[in-house]
Specification:
Strand content: 5-15%
Radius of gyration: 20 Å
CATH architecture of the largest domain: 3-Layer(aba) Sandwich
Shape: globular
Number of domains: 2
Structural class: alpha/beta
CATH topology of the largest domain: Rossmann fold
Distance between the termini: 19 Å
Oligomer: single chain
CATH class of the largest domain: Alpha Beta
């Protein structure tokens, strides 16, 4: 198995647990993070090595990343596993999967690349690389069937893990937060490259929100020690140690559940916030070069998963130069103060939750075992 960031680590850990119920003697190894390791996974390389986003960032780490892939491929070809499961990280995994599939090793990809959003031409590379696709969203299944790629819609594990009814007071009690205070959760990303571009902007946004909400508190869950260190350096750069910001090591869902509003970097965390029924503002920045390329290649007006799945702007998005502290603070502050908008957003997200709640880890495990047994999933 290969998972390259915090969200993939979480998905893979649930899948490992489900597979162990069916295959109790199975061993799992490859590239993964702490949640996978807690489930019994042997990490040959840390997942953080793959957690870069954007063309410029990948180029800076290109030699190291390709070196890791080369070493892993050599090991897998020398001692073939029964199956390879690539969890997201398509730029790393698809090339690896193509070579393994060619060598007769079943290559299953868990989490469809966003071919419906940009780089749709990748469907041809996927067809050559993937023995079976496990899709998280219902509309993806038809895309793969049109290209004769074996696929199973399994739903999203987060929709299973997050309760249908979110208890904000209980979340605040777990985090020792007062019930009557305005709480904002800030999620600037799980990758070091994301912190590089967004930590300072999120801190400046917190400063402006604090001016508008002087009793507010801010929660910042950070996925790794490296991202926590980067955020703390940004606090020093911005001379912001006076702000009531609480850094959390993990606990992203608890922070969002406790919050009145969420400022979040585009990615899986936006879906978590939606499943927790939270009003949010989505922001993203990357290197100018990467942004120019991605902007030309995207197909839809939305980048945040809640908006893509709803096919409309349910919550605001501010990207690249548009993601300024002034705009982010104003949009999030306005959302939190508008109770009618908060209720409408929560109703849309409740419907979305029901669609994605499919007992996904079990369905994914069933599809994988069927592939191992040579049966159609």
């Amino acid at each position: 198995m290969v998972a390259g960031e915090a969200s993939g680590d979480l998905l893979a850990s649930h899948l490992i647990d489900a597979l162990k119920q069916r295959l109790p003697e199975a061993r799992f190894f490859g590239i993964g993070g702490p949640k996978m390791q807690a489930a019994g996974f042997q990490a040959l390389f840390p997942a953080e090595k793959l957690a870069v986003r954007g063309y410029a960032e990948v180029l800076r780490h290109y030699r190291e990343i390709t070196g890791i892939r080369r070493k892993l491929l050599a090991r897998l070809l020398a001692d073939p596993p029964h199956v390879f499961i690539g969890v997201d990280a398509p730029d790393f995994n698809l090339d690896l999967e193509r070579r393994l599939k060619r060598a007769g090793i079943p290559a299953i990809h868990y989490v469809s690349p966003s071919i419906w959003a940009w780089r749709g031409g990748r469907i041809h590379a996927i067809a050559k690389s993937v023995s079976h696709m496990l899709a998280l969203f219902p509309f993806e299944e038809a895309i793969y069937r049109r290209h004769d790629i074996p696929v199973s819609y399994v739903g999203h594990p987060l929709a299973d893990a997050i309760p249908l009814d979110v208890n904000q007071p209980a979340a605040r009690e777990r985090l020792n937060l007062p019930l009557d205070q305005t709480i904002f959760a800030l999620l600037p990303g799980s990758r070091q490259s994301e912190l590089h571009y967004m930590a300072d902007i999120f801190i400046k946004t917190a400063r402006r929100l604090y001016e508008r909400f002087p009793q507010a508190r801010f929660l910042v869950p950070l996925a790794t020690r490296e991202t926590r260190d980067l955020f703390e350096l940004a606090l020093y750069r911005q001379n912001a140690l006076d702000l009531p910001i609480t850094r959390l090591f993990g606990h992203a869902q608890e922070a969002m559940a406790a919050a009145d509003g969420v400022l979040v970097a585009s990615g899986t965390a936006t879906l978590e916030a939606a499943l927790l029924r939270k009003p949010m503002v989505i922001a993203y920045r990357m290197s100018p070069w990467s942004w120019r390329i991605m902007r030309r290649m995207k197909y839809q007006p939305w980048v945040g998963l809640p908006n893509i799945l709803s096919q409309r702007f349910v919550v605001p998005e501010f990207l690249q130069d548009d993601a300024t502290p002034e705009k982010l603070a104003q949009a999030l502050g306005n959302l939190v103060e508008d109770r009618d908008s908060c209720q409408r957003i929560a109703a849309v997200f409740a419907d979305l939750h029901q669609q994605l709640r499919q007992n996904s880890a079990e369905r994914a495990a069933e599809a994988i075992v069927s592939c191992l047994q040579g049966q159609p999933a």
